[in-house]
Automatic annotation (TrEMBL):
It comes from Belliella filtrata. This is LTXXQ motif family protein. It comes from the Bacteria. Keywords: Signal. Residues 1-21 form the signal peptide. The lineage of its organism: Bacteria, Pseudomonadati, Bacteroidota, Cytophagia, Cytophagales.
Length: 149
């Protein structure tokens, strides 16, 4: 129980420091503070025990990096398709997009297979919603900053 309390306090401190760091719109995004806040948020919400967290985070971070790489490629395909392209080029881009979406599915399957050896199925299922909650929280903080709150 003490660990959860400390994690909650750490999470609140991280969010506060993240908000303060981003208050000045000219200041660059602080990835280290973002990652610290994300780790605290997810660890607390999943109620990860110390031994679980030690094994979970390397798996999650690798998954996240690989997923980000694929998402960047999908974004590049979307940019390529914005111009005046031929039918053959469009067909090629569609095939590339489908291949990347297949890679994403395989990556998700591999991740779930690995992560459920470390955390429960229930925790693994909750992870997607928790990640979205964190993104929403960051989005809200940025909106408040933009309004001067």
């Amino acid at each position: 129980m003490k660990t959860s309390r400390y994690l909650l306090i750490l999470m609140m401190l991280c969010f506060s420091s993240l908000a303060l760091a981003q208050r000045d719109q000219n200041q660059r995004f602080d990835k280290e503070k973002f990652e610290t806040a994300r780790v605290a948020f997810i660890t607390n919400r999943l109620d990860l025990k110390t031994d679980q967290a030690e094994k979970f985070w390397p798996i999650f971070n690798k998954f996240n990096d690989d997923r980000e790489s694929i998402m960047t490629k999908l974004s590049e395909i979307s940019k390529e398709s914005e111009g005046n392209i031929s039918e053959n080029d469009a067909k090629s881009l569609i095939n590339k997009r489908l291949e990347l979406q297949e890679e994403l599915l395989k990556l998700d399957q591999k991740f779930m297979s690995e992560v459920t050896k470390v955390i429960t199925n229930k925790q693994a299922l909750a992870l997607g919603g928790i990640s979205r909650d964190f993104a929403r929280q960051i989005y809200r903080m940025n909106n408040q900053r933009g309004r001067g709150n």
